[in-house]
Amino acid sequence: MSKGRNYSTIAAIDRLFLIAIYAAVGLFVLLVTLLFASLVKGSWPSLVKFGLAFLWTSQWNPVTETFGALPLIFGTVVSSLIAIVLAGVVGILAAAYLAEFAPRWLARPLSFVIELLAAVPSVVFGLWGLFVLAPFVRTALGPFLQHTLGFLPIFSGPILNGTGMLTAGLILALMILPTVTAISREVIVAIAQDLREASMSLGATRWETVARIVLPAARVGIFGAIVLALGRAIGETIATTMVIGNRPEIAVSLFAPSYTLASVIANEFTEANGNLYIGALLELGLLLFIVSFIINGAARLLLFAVLKGERT
């Protein structure tokens, strides 16, 4: 009798636990749905007024209430590409070193230091970029790039005060580097040891094994890490706003000031008046939401694919 009561109590607790889990998941889905619906509702005046032309119109003028997101999309895409190229190369090399070559007594402290960068508030990165990186770009890096690669249009034009697309890309690269490195390292470590032993038993060196066997086997997971980092770079706001120059123009030179989707929302939302102006800013938020949702979803699917492959 006592055992019967115990079983019934355990079964009741299990049901309550399942209900709590389903409720938590349902609450999450409800919040995301409400957020999406709120963005659509708030941006409706802009959606009706400009339609799809909002995406390829290049004029952003609150005075005349003419809004086009093309310069902002351009700034977001270019600064994110700079960041993902730099952080991708450095992050993958760092992850390979930490996973395959570094001694254990050194790998753990180095991993901690790299991951510690992810805990630094973005405003600190922005201040550092404004007072240290921008002067460095103006006085050293910019003149060097123009002297050596000045024949390329992207390194032409005046450097001004050091703020611009290149500085924003460098700050974003530093901010997403921990994401690329940490996830790539975990994926590399998860590669089966049998592959390494088989390669080295055939006479391959350690470098050849890593370059030709381990990294190709981990490529899907590494790509997922890069996509996740790209999602953060696209949505970063404060640090980018402080160093990108905040000018809605499309310029070929990386030294020219620019603007991003997140930066214009942070800068102008408190001063916006009128349904159309606020609607245009909310439509930028809706655009960021959709892009981030797609990027993060793709990254999760890739990571799920590589982890499933490791289990089978």
Give structural attributes.
312 residues; mainly alpha; two-stranded antiparallel ribbon; 12 helices; 76% helix; 1% strand; flat
Detail the poorly predicted runs.
none
Radius of gyration: 24 Å
Largest sheet geometry: 2 strands, antiparallel
| Straight-line N-to-C gap | 45 Å
Provide the succession of SSEs: HHEEHHHHHHHHHH
Overall SS class = mainly alpha
Q: How is the largest sheet built, in terms of strand order?
A: 1-2
Proportion of strand residues: under 5%
Mean pLDDT: 87
**Percent of residues in helices:** over 70%
Number of helices, counting only DSSP H or I runs of 4 residues or more: 12
Annotation, overall tally of beta strands:
2
The global form is flat
Q: Describe it for me?
A:
This protein has 312 residues and is mainly α. It is built from twelve helices and two strands, in the order ααββαααααααααα. The protein has helices at 2-42, 44-50, 70-101, 104-116, 122-149, 165-190, 193-201, 206-217, 219-235, 238-243, 261-268, 275-311; strands at residues 60-61, 66-67. A two-stranded antiparallel ribbon has the order 1-2. Helix 4 packs antiparallel against helix 6 and helix 5 packs across helix 6 (165-190). 35% of the residues are buried. The model has no long low-confidence stretch (mean pLDDT 87).
